Amino acid sequence: MGAPSALPLLLLVASCGAPGGANLSQDGYWQEQDLELGTLAPLDEAISSTAWSSPDMLASQDSQPWTSDETVVAGGTVVLKCQVKDHEDSSLQWSNPAQQTLYFGEKRALRDNRIQLVRSTPHELSISISNVALADEGEYTCSIFTMPVRTAKSLVTVLGIPQKPTITGYKSSLREMETTTLNCQSSGSKPAAQLTWRMGDQELPGESTQIQEDSNGKTFTVSSSVTFQVTREDDGTDIICSVNHESLKGADRSTSQRIEVLYTPTAKIRPDPPHPREGQKLLLHCEGAGNPVPQQYLWEKEGSVPPIKMTQDRALIFPFLNKSDSGTYGCTATSNMGSYKAYYTLNSVFSAVYSCHGPARNAVPSGFPPGLTVRPPPPDPSPVPSSSGTYHAVIGGIVAFIVFLLLILLIFLGHYLIRHKGTYLTHEAKGSDDAPDADTAIINAEGGQSGAPRGLPGPSPTWTCTERPQGRPSRLLPSPPPPCTECLLWVRFCTRFGSGREAG
Asked: How far, in Å, CA of 41 to CA of 30, rounded?
């Protein structure tokens, strides 16, 4: 498992002729003084060291092997490479921190299936160690058995991967504006990891990370806590604790805790259709929100004392809108966290005015802040006028014009009838209008009787006036009428203003 059996003899011989700068170590190998172990010494440093200061040793500087330090994550694979420029017909050897030989040249020395040969040449010896554990950490030595024996050290650092963090301290639910503290913990990291907090996408400032060494003496347990106050906007938000460590290589390792916040309900009224018209069907939907969600709804119509309770359903239905439905309607949404009332107003033209008010008085449980007051939004714009209104205006104008023309026509017709009212004379009064005096008028009237010889009296007519002159009674004139001025005037009056007729 070590060097060949002749190695002690060679070491003894080498000790006799070794230069003053080389000493025999406790494990039987020659090591150069003033060379830092575990690091790769550059050639210029090796040349300038006391070990190479002798002119006789300058020719052997190419026989110094060199390696590099390696870092590996626990469970990963590390490759150890040792190189030399002048091997001087000697083989390279790798040994572990316990000074157990792993490979001498291409020959396996330690039965560990995790250790495999990668490359073996006179100038290079490379091996790999898979499934690295924390116990594999330490200094690995590469040696070349020249005169003297030269070595190089490779420090292997194993990173402990932190476990997934855990969050404690959360209760089943939180009330609005309540303050809570959460704790986060992760173990198994090497070196110690760092913990950070987030609420959703925003960073949440927490206390500094506390570090405690694990019982194995190699890894660490880290912990942190955060204290914050919750609002209704935090309901359903994830509180995230993340662990940051170089072994994760940028990968996210975190855990989250979703919080539930209980808060008073809110409500708003949504009309369907948005701009109701008279004669339409209208539904007012009361949409409540909160945690828990409101389960009780009460509709009331304001304006009366007490308000008229209409229904306890979520929707208030108007099958056929009319002006009597105008008024202010309130919807009260209630949960075990309190109540909230929203209002909706229908005016005379059914343009909706919607407003919200804060929670009902004395409805907020103790320990809660006063309810918020929500300003009402601006009133809805005036409803778009119907296209049929234009046609109604045109038809109304036409009808008004026709009525105006009919009135004008009736006025002219009445005026014409008044001016051309019927004026006629009986046969007995024919010629009386042209007579110069009453006697002539009577004579002309008597002479106008048909069927009677001139100078002889005809039949004795009886005169009457069918329309009574204002203030004078109807009179029955004797036949024949007396030749007097009064009778003549009466006859003329009747013939002008009455409808005289001959009787008998």
From this structure: 17
Place of tokens 């083989």: 91
Q: How far is CA 321 from the centre of its chain?
A: 34
SS3 501: strand
| Segment 133-157, tens digit of pLDDT | 999 999 999 999 888 889 999 999 9
Task: Give the tens place of pLDDT for each residue, 349-361.
Answer: 544 444 444 444 4
What is the pTM (predicted TM-score) of this model? 0.54
DSSP 66: B
Q: Which residues, 6+ apart, have CB-to-CB distance to 501 below 8 Å?
A: 426, 464, 466
3-state secondary structure 333-385: EEECCEEEEEEEEECCCCCEEEEEEEECCCCCCCCCCCCCCCCCCCCCCCCCC
| Phi/psi of residue 26, nearest 5 degrees | -65, -30
Provide the 8-state DSSP code for 137. -
Amino acid letter at 305? V
Neighbours of 96 (CB within 10 A): 19
Nearest alpha-carbon partner for 93 in 46, 128, 141? 141
Question: Where does the pLDDT of residue 167 fall: very low under 50, low under 70, confident under 90, or very high at 90 and above?
Answer: very high
The Cα–Cα gap between 414 and 57 comes to 153
Which residue in 34, 84, 37 sits closest to 61, CA to CA? 84
State the DSSP H helix or E strand holding residue 154, giving kind and residue range, or none if neither: strand 150-159
pLDDT band at 276 (very low <50, low <70, confident <90, very high): confident
With 0-12 / 13-18 / 19 or more C-beta atoms within 10 angstroms meaning exposed / middle / buried, residue 267 is buried
Closest CA to 174 of 241, 240, 255, 257: 257
Burial class (CB in 10 A: 0-12, 13-18, 19+), 430: middle
Can you spell out the DSSP letters for 415-465?
HHHHHT------STTTTTTT-SSHHHHHHHHHHT-TTS-TTS-----EEE-
